[in-house]
């Protein structure tokens, strides 16, 4: 399953809304987008450039097609999102 740019925009809007509600947006994201996988990390744990930079989070795309999960910049192969808190 690919992640469309429209879906990424929806996730970005949701994160902006959730910022006032909680410090851990992952449960809310999973409720709103049950077809996607989300992982929460600290931004200092990732050496890759983010796919999107937000006020409180950086977003990274995950490619889980192969044996090893990897960060990708290609939404057409992304199956999940890392939400890295700043």
What labels describe this entry?
alpha+beta, five-stranded mixed β-sheet, 28% strand
What does this structure look like?
By secondary structure, this protein is an alpha+beta fold. It has one domain. The protein has helices spanning 5-18, 26-32, and strands at residues 37-42, 52-53, 57-63, 70-72, 80-85. It is globular and about 35 Å long.
List how many beta strands DSSP finds.
Answer: 5
> Approximately how much beta-strand content do the residues carry?
25-35%
Distance between the termini: 28 Å
* Order of SSEs: HHEEEEE
Helix content: 10-25%
DSSP helical segment count: 2
**Low-pLDDT segments, ≥5 res:** none
Mean pLDDT: 91
Q: What best-fitting shape do the alpha-carbon axes yield?
A: globular
Decide which structural class fits the backbone: alpha+beta
Q: Please tell me how large the radius of gyration is.
A: 12 Å
Total count of domains: 1
| Biggest sheet details | 5 strands, mixed
Topology:
Elements: H1 5-18, H2 26-32, E1 37-42, E2 52-53, E3 57-63, E4 70-72, E5 80-85
Parallel strand pairs: 1-5
Antiparallel strand pairs: 2-3, 3-4, 3-5
Summary of the model, kept short:
This protein is α+β, with helices and mostly antiparallel strands. 24% of the residues lie in helices and 28% in strands. The chain has one domain (5-85).
């Amino acid at each position: 399953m690919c992640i469309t740019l429209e879906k990424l925009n929806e996730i970005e809007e949701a994160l902006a809304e959730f910022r006032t509600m909680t410090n851990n947006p992952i449960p809310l994201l999973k409720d709103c987008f049950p077809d996607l996988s989300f992982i929460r990390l600290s931004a200092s744990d990732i050496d890759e450039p983010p796919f999107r930079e937000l006020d409180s989070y950086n977003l990274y795309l995950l490619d889980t097609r192969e044996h090893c999960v990897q960060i990708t910049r290609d939404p057409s192969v992304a199956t999940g999102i890392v939400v890295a808190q700043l």
